[in-house]
Amino acid sequence: MNPLQKKFDIAPFSSVKTQHFLPAIKAAIKIARKEIDTITKSTEASTFKNTIEALDFAGEQLDRVTSMFFNLNSAETNDEIQKIAQEASPLLAEFGNDITLNEDLFKRVKEVHDKKESMDLSIEQQTLLEKKYKSFSRNGANLPENKKQELRNIDKELSKLTLKFGENVLAETNAFELHLTDENDLKGLPDGAKEAAKLNAKANDKEGWVFTLDYPSYLPFMTYADNRELRKRMALAFGARAFKNNEYDNQEIVLKIAKLRYQRAHLLGYRSHAHFVLEERMAETPEKVLDFLNELLDKAKPAAEREFKTLENFAKELHGIDHLEKWDGAYYSEKLKQKLFDLDDEQLKPYFKLENVISGVFEVAEKMFDLNFMKTTEIDTYHEDVLTYKVMDNDGNFISLFYADFFPRPGKRNGAWMTSYKPQYIKKGKNERPHVSIVCNFTKPTKTKPSLLTFNEVTTLFHEFGHALHGMLANTKYPSLSGTSVYWDFVELPSQMLENWCYEKEALELFATHYKSGEAIPMELVKKIKESATFHEGMKTLRQVRFGLLDMSWHSKDPSDISDVKKHEQKAFNGTLLYPDVAENCMSTAFAHIFQGGYSSGYYSYKWAEVLDADAFEYFKEEGIFNKRVANKFKDNVLSKGGTEKPMVLYKRFRGQEPKPEALLRRAGLIKK
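RE: above sequence
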């Protein structure tokens, strides 16, 4: 019997074989289709319970099986699993479309939505109803048939254009190489960058060294290469990608994408693409995003200009450079940083033994949220490295299962992430508790040394654990509103906020001790970490604001009159530039985040989440970083609530006010404390 084709609570990893997955996914899709049919074929009048609630619980088995499968595809994959993923993904996409385009299903959802005012629904039920209704309406379910066809045509054209945009950027990136044969041209570069360039050359049957526009090659070159003329060649090539009036030029594509997105939004009844996107974001409207970005601009610009002036003076003193250009920025910033902060990761690592950091993050959770982590070997895992814990509260109630997978290995992708094998929800009066996992890639212990983390890895562990707390402490009724199922400009609040504890003496004393001597980390080292973290924060903030404003300029109004991509971009950048403009460069034609990835009208959210976490942590700092009252407010109003209410409502209930950008600016050292 296929263990995935029967109900299970804890993921049955040890009894599952790879070949079980595809039949189990197909069988679970069949079950889910039957559950949908039960809703659509009901002869009873549509109610919240028999339609909206039933729809949210439909596909439960499918969710359980796919959450196991896709985490394995990231954490413990092989050729067979990847082949199954290629087969399963279209089946799942087709099933998703079949739900969204199911007219009988939408009819019943709409019937409930139309009579919502006369129903006595809780706030959570109202939120779920809106979420289900919008999943149809935002995909054109309310449009007449001819308009639906128009929408499908636009979507089809957009999918081709965004794909072509990405292909062009990739082709342009691959078309350029800097081939060097004189070793003098490599001065300043680290050995690792030189080695990689030598391997690049060898792979192409060339002598010497080859540098490309791929980030691992481009960034070290721009940061360390002493030869200014060569940095200029690299920078000009990078900035001119898909802006050369050749077969890979993206100017027309950018204009078409912007115009089609506007038409699509208009068709669905929205003023612009940004109005459409932001309806489902914490920021809500383009006006709010623009106010937010302009406020940051006002605060960050004076600091950025001061930093730039200092950098110019430094470059002049060092090498007699009169005017800094774009190709000088990373190079002189790195030189200045080395001069100002004498800090080496190797000094810090002995204080961050992995086991101690794990104990530390658990103790932080215990002090704040009364959670106790009990290590167990009774839980099934997919690899011997995976640690498992039962999480209990102080009264002995079961809160969650917690999996932690810390070390790299073949078949595991890079990076760090949080996932879940089972969401929290309440069904038939029973509070089903979640099964949550974090996955990282830290150095494995050796025969002579334990796993010692860099400071960046410590913050990574705290970050992912913040997401895990959001999942573990969930306490909602419906699975699609539980845990991390929140707007994407809100989801990073718990994770980014928890990183702040890594810089606090009170928290570091719990776990940062030398693995040999047991001596606590010297606070002057922590001070240096803090100081270097805010280096050039004004210039970095100005850069992010500039990109956000460019994004909004393409998407928050009618783009029909835009005919020149470069001129439009210059107008959008007005007041945000520090370096002189380069005529042959254009950012929009290679801005994959917004013209290929999912960030159109959403680039602002990087800074938005930072404002939330800085403002929230300031509250903890005021009352004490382990203050129980503030921690309970955060748990009760943010961590446990998931997506049951609008994020700003939840945030204000926790904080007592809307988040203020000043908190971020203070932390970044851009305004006085």
